[in-house]
């Protein structure tokens, strides 16, 4: 009944979109149709198929839908690509909405699906088998990357707000991303039919065995197949928001470093999927415009200048122009190591303070609008947190890259979670969150000092003169699951904060 209801909703929404599509499609010189495509094992997948009119063969772009969404998610972008001369097959991923099968969390059937969709397009459209690309947001991004690793026919990819490693995304530094996991699991139940592996992951989340459950996800990330990608050599464009709360950018940056293919990475303000969502609907959007240019360059061989810019494209999270760099390390002129107070701080753990990373999606969307998560560090309860403020800056500075915190930590329990936040504090005492990272010690020896090297999420942030950097460390964040029991103690001896600056 759930599948039937979902199909009715999907068909209603699709009908509304297609009702207006024929005149536009006719004027633009392309056709659109709703089709059923046999996926891996013959599983029926529902798709929107766009084809330029004429007799010539065209480059093909396959677009797997995002988690809990369906093919019409890309209706606007697909029409734009078709108008530019591309064939597009946008399909609902198996297990969701009007496609059959069960949710496999980007398992082997999902990887097989993208190849079967390519097979179908080559057999039923004028698609050119030598010019095939894949593009998607979120779940569609991850499946596109996996498809390129397993199917050498895919020559170019644009992976937006996606993942290369599910474990490094949802279980960052052995810490459960509570808001993200809950959102994904809930949406999976509402919009699709969970498969066995889905239920295994869900069970691990419930029992606080998430790390063990996610081991089955290793093969479900492109990071596991870098060698295959480097052999196949598809051109790969990665795009993400600085504050992506589901697939944070650090795991994309690590993946980017390991690729030895034509590649590009773009990072800008936004949360999961928010930087490119409007472009999927066909509205003006930088990421989708560059995706089209990326495919024009690598599927059509057009010298359109996208390679003339540095492959690392970064837009400050708090506003400012795009900056382009030849390498990731090239974005920073210098690395400055700030020594931290040579003293030990004993805090009471398991108690929340005003320091926090914000709410999934809401915080990143607000940042796109120039509204940033703000606290007053003076209100942070020092009984439950460590606070350190640098001297005020004498000139404007840009933090660009990944700050690194080094410390000694002595927990009083076997499992302890802590959170490090870096703030931009203004002279009036208000501080905007720049970046953060969680860390969980599991199976530690109570009373024994533990060495900590914690790399915060990468960022590009403009700091005005007279502002200062403020570091806060505490043990509770509403976005994550903390393992620190309430009213236990934690001894901190932070030693340094290393900052990439320009």
- Please work out how many helical segments DSSP would assign: 13
Counted up, domains total 2
> What name does CATH use for the topology of the largest domain?
Rossmann fold
Query: How much helix is in the residues?
Result: 25-40%
Q: What shape does the CA trace take? A: globular
Mean pLDDT: 94
Side by side, the strands of the main sheet go 1-2-4-3-5-6-7-8-9-10
Provide the CATH superfamily of the largest domain. Answer: Alpha/Beta hydrolase fold, catalytic domain
Instruction: Please identify the structural class as seen in this structure.
Output: alpha/beta
Spell out the blueprint of helices and strands.
Blueprint: H1 2-28, E1 30-38, E2 44-52, E3 58-64, H2 75-83, E4 87-91, H3 108-124, E5 127-137, H4 139-150, E6 154-160, H5 166-170, H6 178-191, H7 196-206, H8 210-213, H9 226-232, E7 235-241, H10 249-258, E8 263-268, H11 277-280, H12 286-299, E9 312-314, E10 323-325, E11 334-339, E12 345-348, H13 362-368, E13 374-375, E14 386-389, E15 397-401, E16 404-411, E17 416-425, E18 431-441, E19 450-455, E20 459-463, E21 468-474, E22 489-501
Parallel strand pairs: 3-4, 3-5, 5-6, 6-7, 7-8, 8-9
Antiparallel strand pairs: 1-2, 2-4, 9-10, 11-22, 12-22, 13-18, 14-21, 15-20, 16-19, 16-22, 17-18, 17-21
Helix pairs in contact: 3-4
Please, could you describe this protein's structure?
This protein has about 500 residues and is α/β, with parallel strands linked by helices. The protein folds into two domains: about 1-310, Rossmann fold; about 335-500, Galactose-binding domain-like (Jelly Rolls, Sandwich). It is built from 13 helices and 22 strands. The strands form four sheets. The protein has a ten-stranded mixed β-sheet, with helices on both faces. Helix 3 (about 110-125) packs across helix 4 (about 140-150).
